[in-house]
Amino acid sequence: MQNITDIWTGSEQLPFYGFIVRALFVYLYIFLMVKVIGQRSMANIDPLDFIFGVVIGDVVGETVSSGDEELTGPFAGAAMIAFLHWLLSFASLKLPRFRRVIEDEPFIIIENGQILNDMLKKTNMTIEQLLMELRQNDASNLNEIDYAILEPNGQVSVIKKSPFNAATGYDIGLNPQNEGYPHVIIADGKLISANMEKIMNRKQLENGLIDHGYNRIEDVFLMTVNDKGEWYLSPRLRV
């Protein structure tokens, strides 16, 4: 019974398994806190990854600054957290029902052009925050919006009404060629030979650079070439 109390209150004589149990307590506690504060507070961060980073830092952080603490316990706790993180990620991938417990579902906050007030309250989003998200999606005119969805990563996706979507080549009777993947040929003044060899030889590269006003590879900060053969070059500015 005393050992159980020591796990919660802490003790200089904490047994090996005590660090593992304490790490598990911290992980579950932070997981509950993340679920309570909601996905708006976790924008661009996967909740499991956030918890993993926080708990691992807490478990092993003190061992860096404290020279008299044995590493066995904290390392065991960190291993436990890493295993639990992997287990939850694997379970959410394989078990759809369990995934709904771990990951938040998307919330529709605008439907058929109408703002759903109850969903704004449920997601702790204010009108000002919603309008900001819409502006960032180039959708400041509410009359143009069909749907807006709060995604699990905290970002808002916008689906505009059909008349307000940008016209594509197919809409105007064209059959445009796919641009394909932009291959990085030069990055920060350094040639990526493996990528270049998929598209051109060294002589073609040098001639192309001259045609674009560059005498040396070192003068280019970034160069990409897509599958259509279109070049993009950005100069490397000397500081």
From TrEMBL:
<keyword id="KW-1003">Cell membrane</keyword>
<feature type="domain" description="YetF-like N-terminal transmembrane">
    <location>
        <begin position="25"/>
        <end position="65"/>
    </location>
</feature>
<keyword id="KW-0812">Transmembrane</keyword>
<keyword id="KW-0472">Membrane</keyword>
<dbReference type="GO" id="GO:0005886">
    <property type="term" value="C:plasma membrane"/>
</dbReference>
<feature type="transmembrane region" description="Helical">
    <location>
        <begin position="73"/>
        <end position="93"/>
    </location>
</feature>
<feature type="domain" description="YetF C-terminal">
    <location>
        <begin position="94"/>
        <end position="226"/>
    </location>
</feature>
<protein>
    <submittedName>
        <fullName>Uncharacterized membrane protein YcaP, DUF421 family</fullName>
    </submittedName>
</protein>
<dbReference type="InterPro" id="IPR048454">
    <property type="entry name" value="YetF_N"/>
</dbReference>
<dbReference type="InterPro" id="IPR023090">
    <property type="entry name" value="UPF0702_alpha/beta_dom_sf"/>
</dbReference>
<feature type="transmembrane region" description="Helical">
    <location>
        <begin position="50"/>
        <end position="67"/>
    </location>
</feature>
<keyword id="KW-1133">Transmembrane helix</keyword>
<dbReference type="Pfam" id="PF20730">
    <property type="entry name" value="YetF_N"/>
</dbReference>
<dbReference type="InterPro" id="IPR007353">
    <property type="entry name" value="DUF421"/>
</dbReference>
<feature type="transmembrane region" description="Helical">
    <location>
        <begin position="16"/>
        <end position="38"/>
    </location>
</feature>
<comment type="similarity">
    <text>Belongs to the UPF0702 family.</text>
</comment>
<dbReference type="Pfam" id="PF04239">
    <property type="entry name" value="DUF421"/>
</dbReference>
